[in-house]
Amino acid sequence: MCVFKRCCFCNVIFCVVCSFSNWQDYYKSGIIRCPDGISIPELREACDYLCISFDYSTIKCRDLSALMHELSNDGARRQFEFYLEEMVLPLMVASAQSGERECHIVVLTDDDVVDWDEEYPPQMGEEYSQIIYSTKLYRFFKYIENRDVAKSVLKERGLKKIRLGIEGYPTYKEKVKKRPGGRPEVIYNYVQRPFIRMSWEKEEGKSRHVDFQCVKSKSITNLAAAAADIPQDQLVVMHPGPQVDELDILPNHPPPGQHYSNNFNNEPDPDAPSPAV
Predict the structure, then answer these.
(1) For the ranges 95-104, 165-174, 220-229, which has the lowest average pLDDT?
(2) 30 φ/ψ sector (left φ>0, alpha ψ -120 to 50, else beta)
(3) Of 62, 85, 112, which residue sits at a domain end?
(4) 190 and 84 in one domain?
(5) Do residues 194 and 107 touch, judged by C-beta distance below 8 A?
(6) Which end of the chain is flanked by fewer CB atoms within 10 Å, N or C?
(7) pLDDT band at 191, cuts 50/70/90?
(8) How many domains does the chain have?
């Protein structure tokens, strides 16, 4: 059992032992009254362990803030799973069908208008972003707690490199300024809107094929030199001898009394000894 599961199990046992009478009351009346000293997250773990429904009709406690927080997390999870299937997933599929390995989605409101200058578009890479026009999803992502819930849902669905936050997005051109030299500079109006960025690949931008430049040459017989990664062109003494097929094409040995020279014109070598008479 991992440490996390062990801790959860200990919390469950602690809750059950400390409030055993409260569990008996639940099976009689259908209501659990949270005892003092037990936090709502601990009570939630105990309910999950005992397969007891955790909602406002079964849980009664004085800490309404903590109770509402847990209920909001449940509601946010259900709501985002709906948004994921209806709004986000179609854009992910469109990116995958075009050969992309990740998806960058910006959430705008229903009233936002995007009007870029065709000649001078924004130079921030927004042209690769996909847009969801939904005021409901925009309001959902305003809360950092909802973004945390959404991130956990995306992780559970197997996605990688997940980023959720708020960023500036250009909507329309405000004015054009002239820089020194006559070059125009377009100023856009930016609005702060939620964004989602995720990938479905484990390693982005890394080849899964063998890089043959990193493979050690079999001609290196010195293991110490191979481990030290010495370039092969510096290992003159480590080259193996010629193979059998190479020996076959070597010239025959000269007869006794003759030797090789660099004289390619078949002229007699003056330094060579005179033949015996």
Answers:
(1) 220-229
(2) left
(3) 62
(4) yes
(5) yes
(6) C
(7) very high
(8) 3
Greater confidence (91 vs 223) lies with 91
Cβ–Cβ < 8 Å for 99, 201: no
Residues 6+ apart with CB under 8 A from 83: 134, 137, 140
Residue 191 backbone dihedrals phi, psi, to 5 degrees: -120, 145
pLDDT tens digit sequence for 194-216: 999 999 998 655 555 555 455 45
Largest Cα–Cα separation, the chain: 132
Residue-wise DSSP of 57-70:
TTEE-S-HHHHHHH
For residues 80 and 194, membership in a common domain is answered with yes
pLDDT, the chain, mean: 75
Do 96 and 175 have their domain in common? Answer: yes
Any domain includes 122: yes
Within 13 Å, how many C-alpha atoms sit on residue 170's CB side? 20
One domain for residues 102 and 33: no
Strands (E), the chain: 32-33, 59-60, 102-108, 130-133, 160-178, 184-199
Q: Which domain holds residue 85?
A: 76-199
